[in-house]
Specification:
Elements (H helix, E strand, L loop, with lengths): L6 H41 L2 H6 L7 E6 L1 H10 L6 E3 L2 H10 L4 E12 L3 E12 L2 E15 L2 E11 L6
Parallel strand pairs: 1-6
Antiparallel strand pairs: 1-2, 3-4, 4-5, 5-6
């Protein structure tokens, strides 16, 4: 039994291996660049740096949605029967709120996952949003990003809101 690879298969593997290695390196570099966006987002919230925070987003278009968890929605609906389960917003509203708030803010991320092909990316993580050191809400958040001439920009954001129980 001949165990040698046919020359065509050998060449395909030999040529494809460097390409796969380069693609993996490019993906790793893109993931590092995207992690810098994630870090800058968190730092800008704490610093109330609206300019930096706003600069992380693609200025035109985009989507921003908050979705209440079932438990949070039931509690809010009990007080306000017409309350919606989700709310559309915008990054500009968020930037304005962060930049002008008198309260200390911080958003802590965990379980951050970044998927990218080097041109588009998604980031998914769990978060806790703190106001004056107390949990304001927690949930999961997802971003979509694109690589522009000016680096990675967030094009959309969707997150769940699990409000803390009222004591």
């Amino acid at each position: 039994m001949n165990r040698t690879l046919p020359i065509g298969l050998f060449l395909a593997v030999a040529i494809g291996f460097p390409c796969a290695t380069l693609a993996a390196a490019a993906s790793s570099s893109a993931q590092q660049d995207i992690q810098h966006v994630v870090d800058a987002f968190q730092t800008a919230i704490v610093a109330k740096d609206g300019k930096t925070l706003g600069g992380l987003f693609l200025p035109q278009g985009g989507a921003w949605f908050t979705v209440l968890s079932d438990d949070s929605y039931a509690r809010i609906k009990a007080r306000s029967p017409g309350a919606p389960k989700y709310k559309q917003g915008s990054y500009t509203e968020f930037v304005q709120m962060v930049a002008t708030s008198k309260e200390a803010m911080e958003e802590k991320f965990s379980n951050v996952r970044i998927d990218t092909d080097g041109a588009v990316a998604s980031v998914y993580f769990d978060f806790v949003f703190l106001l004056n050191g107390a949990q304001n809400n927690r949930g999961s958040e997802t971003w979509h990003l694109i690589k522009t001439d000016d680096g990675w920009k967030i094009t959309s954001m969707t997150y769940s809101a699990n409000l803390p129980p009222k004591g």
